Amino acid sequence: MTDQQPDVPDEPAVLTEPAVLAELARDIDRVCRLEGEFVVRSGAVVPEYFDKYLFESDPVLLRRVAEAMVRLVPDDTDLLGGLELGGVPIATMMSSLTGLPALFVRKAPKAYGTRRLAEGADVDGRRITLVEDIVTTGGAVRDATAVLREQGATVEVVVCTIDRSEPGANRLHELGLQTRSVLTRADLDRARTA
């Protein structure tokens, strides 16, 4: 394997079926956007919170998301690499829909047993499409890509349900990674006001 990565566009690829995607965005937003009093990672208290696990734990909504994401997977994919934690149920559903094996990618290798970062099939020489629920800064994707490439995998695409990155904040293209998303933060905001 060479260190050279293919040229990829700076802008993420987005699935375009306006009516279907608008309905999916409305349903995800309705299920996941909570109002109340929530403490966020920074310690601030906010009146609204987006709980992504609510769509991931709903089998009907999860299947709709996975069906949309399957269309974004490159044809030459060998393995679907679900990132811990949110990408795992999505990759599992996508695996069921496509017949492609799923790989479960931890945030850090476990300290016992196989001590692997990625659970499932051997990754050496395999083309992995990473699966993530939400991409904001891409940190988990970046870390997983580096380790999987060190282990001999080819990683060029990440598919995600929602690209919530601010304009210019998703720098994954600098690693030779293309981000393909079903929805964006703007899609969810439009769904809320529709």
Automatic annotation (TrEMBL):
Cited Pfam families: Pribosyltran
Gene3D superfamilies (alphabetical): 3.40.50.2020
Catalytic activity: orotidine 5'-phosphate + diphosphate = orotate + 5-phospho-alpha-D-ribose 1-diphosphate
InterPro entries named among the record's database cross-references: OPRT, Or_phspho_trans_dom, PRTase-like, PRTase_dom
Molecular function in Gene Ontology: magnesium ion binding; orotate phosphoribosyltransferase activity
Organism field: Terrabacter aerolatus
Subunit structure: Homodimer.
Pathway connected to this protein: Pyrimidine metabolism; UMP biosynthesis via de novo pathway; UMP from orotate: step 1/2
Coiled-coil annotated residue ranges, if any: none
UniProtKB keywords: Glycosyltransferase, Magnesium, Pyrimidine biosynthesis, Transferase
Entry protein name: Orotate phosphoribosyltransferase
Domain Phosphoribosyltransferase: 74-165
